[in-house]
Amino acid sequence: MLAILLKDYLIELRTKETLAALLTLGVLTLLVLSFAFDPTSELRPLAAPGTLWAAVVFSGVLAVNRSFLAERDNACLQGLLLCPIDRGTIYLAKAAANFLFMLAAQVVLLPLFMVFFNLTPSGALFRVCLVLVLGILGFAAAGTLFAAMSVRTRAREVMLPLLLLPIVMPVLIGGVVASGAVLAGKGLGEVQQWMQLLVVYDVVLLVVGWLAFEYAVEE
Amino acid sequence: MHEAAIRAEQLTRRFGVVAALNAVDLTVLTGEAVAIFGPNGAGKTTLLRVCGTLLRPSAGRVHLFGEDLRGAGAAVRRRLGVLSHQSFLYPDLTPTENLEFYARMYRVDAARVAELIDRTGLAGWAHRPVRTLSRGLEQRCALARALLHHPDLLLLDEPFSGLDVEAVQQIETLLGEERRRGVTMMLTTHDVERGAALCERALVLARGQLRWDGPSADLSRERVEGLFQIRRAG
């Protein structure tokens, strides 16, 4: 699993394609949506969590799509499938790589989000980070599986969001509601049910992905 | 008595309504070298992909080293070396990085990478990205990847296509060395003379069915073409 992660990291280090695309799309999403609301409007804080998660979703779809495009060149995915490891392990490694790339993008996007929405660093930031980690893990778990399924389809750029977005709806709803609440000053105890939803979703999707990956990549 | 490296019984593989392989019965003993001839669309690549655990049979059974392909896991894949039309090499990584990656996946010592880089004559290109290599160099690197873990069964799909004379000779030499090691080999090719020279047994596939199975020495280009004609007429 570590070998696949290191390989994906090395390819990214060489090409810088995924992170660059993720950041560009994420920053543009934050920028455009932050301009959509008047700086003095009372609605602006209410729109903040939705804006943050819109950036996560747009950049996330791009990240999971790209992760299997690299495996499509020279049929490298077949090379991976031939390796003497459990095929579910390939899924876990690709999901981990997607999770780390999406998380790395948030290291840049989150401070920009704070600036665009005039939010001051506080304990709420830590709690938002926790919500983001759980949400992104679920998104990467579902996205990796669906990206593997759609990579061989001709209209994969269309297919992936169509398949993925309805499936990650619990992550988006949970993420937006929990982020909104903690940004409004509530503690994690008050959003416990949403955090539990994210944890259960993460575990279920990771197990389903691990079991289903072999069939997802089958011709 | 030799163990069967491959045993296929009524092997059928369909893509939609098209049967790429149709009730093929085949046994390849360990240590045997088998060349598969056939026109385009005969099912040669599909046969190799099924034997390489990359495709599941639609019907029938395949056993690799006595193990049913349906339950074949990492242990069986560990014994396979596959060279495909495509190289399975990451274009943005160098041959060394690609082979080191696969060495980690197969738990092979890093020294083996250096040995194969040397044996395949890739030393001068070992640190250039694969996407900058010529077809011949990439194919040599792909063969190095296939041989990395000392496989017991080599499945080679058109190993010589698009290569210059020097590259072909180099690959023939490498394959000859593997044959002397006792590796079982099954390759597809359109080059009857070269296939017959490398393998003692030949198969002719047409329309997904086995049309001929016998010693390579008994198979001439004319005979293969005759078998293709039967296919066209049929």
Question: What does the model show?
Answer:
- Chain A has helices spanning 2-15, 17-35, 43-72, 76-82, 87-116, 123-150, 156-167, 169-183, 192-216.
- Chain A contains nine helices and no strands.
- Helix content of chain A is 82%, strand content 0%.
- Chain A has one domain (2-216).
- The mean pLDDT of chain A is 90.
- In chain A, helix 3 (43-72) packs antiparallel against helix 5 (87-116).
- Chain B is an alpha/beta fold and 234 residues long.
- Chain B has a domain at 1-75 and 190-234: 3-Layer(aba) Sandwich (Rossmann fold), CATH 3.40.50.300.
- Chain B is built from eight helices and ten strands.
- Chain B has a six-stranded mixed beta sheet, with helices on both faces. Chain B has a four-stranded antiparallel beta sheet with strand order 2-1-4-5, covered by helices on one side.
- In chain B, strand 1 and strand 2 form a beta hairpin.
- Chain B is globular.
- The termini of chain B are far apart.
- Classes of the chains: A mainly alpha (219), B alpha/beta (234).
- The interface between A and B is medium-sized, with 24 and 31 residues.
List keywords for this structure.
heterodimer; A: 219 residues; mainly alpha; 9 helices; 82% helix; globular; B: 234 residues; alpha/beta; Rossmann fold; six-stranded mixed β-sheet; four-stranded antiparallel β-sheet; 10 strands; 35% helix; 27% strand
Number of strands of chain A: 0
Most strands sheet of chain B: 6 strands, mixed
Largest interface, C-beta within 8 A? A-B, 24 and 31 residues
**Total helical elements of chain B:** 8
Which regions of chain B contain 5 or more consecutive residues with pLDDT less than 50? none
CATH topology of the domain at 1-75 and 190-234 in chain B: Rossmann fold
The amount of helix of chain B comes to 25-40%
Strand content of chain A: under 5%
Beta-strand content bin of chain B: 25-35%
Number of domains of chain A: 1
CATH H-tier superfamily of the domain at 1-75 and 190-234 in chain B: P-loop containing nucleotide triphosphate hydrolases
What structural class do the secondary elements of chain B suggest? alpha/beta
Shape of chain A: globular
Main β-sheet of chain A, in a few words? none
Give the terminus-to-terminus CA distance of chain B: 38 Å
Poorly predicted runs of 5 or more residues of chain A: none
CATH architecture of the domain at 1-75 and 190-234 in chain B: 3-Layer(aba) Sandwich
- Radius of gyration of chain B equals 18 Å
